[in-house]
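Entry for the shared binder. Reason: the reviewer on the internal report wants the predicted structure included alongside the sequence.
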Amino acid sequence: MTTTYDPFHPRYFDEGDLREELTRVYDLCHGCRLCFKFCTSFPTLFGYIDAHDDQDAARLSAAEQDQVVDECFQCKLCYINCPYTPGQHEWELDFPRLMMRAEQVLFRNRRRSAATRLTDAALGRTDLAGRVGSAVAPLANRIIGTPGSASRRLMESTVGISAERVLPPYQRVRFSTWFKRRRRPPVDPGGRGVGVFPTCQVEYSDTRVGKDLVEVYEHNGIGCDLPEGQQCCGAPLLHQGDVSGFTDAARRNVSLLAKWIRTRRGHGEEASIVVPQPTCGYVLKNDYPDYLPGPDSQLVAEHTFDAAEYLMKVHVEDRQAGGEGLRSDFDGTVPETTTYHAPCHLRAQNVGLKSRDLIKLTGTRVKLVAECSGIDGTWGLRAENLGASRKVASKMATAIEKADSEVVSGDCSLANGGIRLETGAQPLHPLSLLARAYGLAPDADDGAGSGSGGT
């Protein structure tokens, strides 16, 4: 048995070795049970083991082991709460990474049905879907825009994406196109500057988030650049178990981002990458160095920040140096109360609740909800996972409704779709909330994110 989370270890893809490691970890988790509340994987696991009089994890069948794997949606909250993680305990237990290893081994060894392969392709080829969707945005949005409609039921039966899910609309003008066309304000050559990694969500759908990010950053004297050639971070492929497809995406992004960082540093300029979507930020910080080890991926990881994390870093550093921090001219719309939903993949980055702290600067009273949306990448979009996903999300919905705030805010576009499905509220990204507080963006949606295919 090999306790390894290294995809380059010679026994990483050995299924027999994996089965032994699953037995070891399942036995430890059964004895602890601290993570019973995070997802259905753990109640399922505990139930399987409890069914045996001797409660021996080795008695689980391969199918029972795999069921636990299938129900893990990589929220990573168990890792945050686990007392037995690598570097902290001799057991070196990393449940999310073990589940990812299992997905990757099974992806190689298990015969996938035609329907599964089609769903994997529909959810994994985000850039292709985005380019086509943006090119025919009005038509595409009519097809996907109404959950439960006949077109969505047809979509579910063919590509396996739940007909009930709220899907983000495509925008006719992509974020990168808007960025190239816009009129840039003068930037202090010696000032701060960042490279934006917009993610496929912002590039094709939630373009308003990207625009608000740029407006807020530049309002605070932070210049924005858009390194050429970026594509999807590859998270959907990684979470399906497609290591080859993921590393291909990672290699291209790492190469161009590392080059951008070194060029900036060569000119004596700051070289930070900011990411407005939590899953993608996690991938750049954590998964790229694991699956594409080397100086380039490490350089990218060390210079990557969540978009709110970076702004709070600037705010704190400026105040420590005797300055005022971020600008406080909030002359736009500031809600009296805001419920902030902390996405799992942002919490997993262990940077603290920077988005909440950023929102507080506007003067709004913030109520925190830290319950999982049950989406976590693309797992919750699959039709077969809808029931389990909504069961997980029910605690989040109850907490948001109980908070009863004027505005709901959340960093993750897909989680925000889950919030809309469960509560009817349309959340604002923290950067969008800040843009409205500064008076830099319209109070009402201008079409980006409305389903109209607007600009």
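Summary line for the report: The chain has four domains: 15-109, 114-159, 175-320, 337-438.
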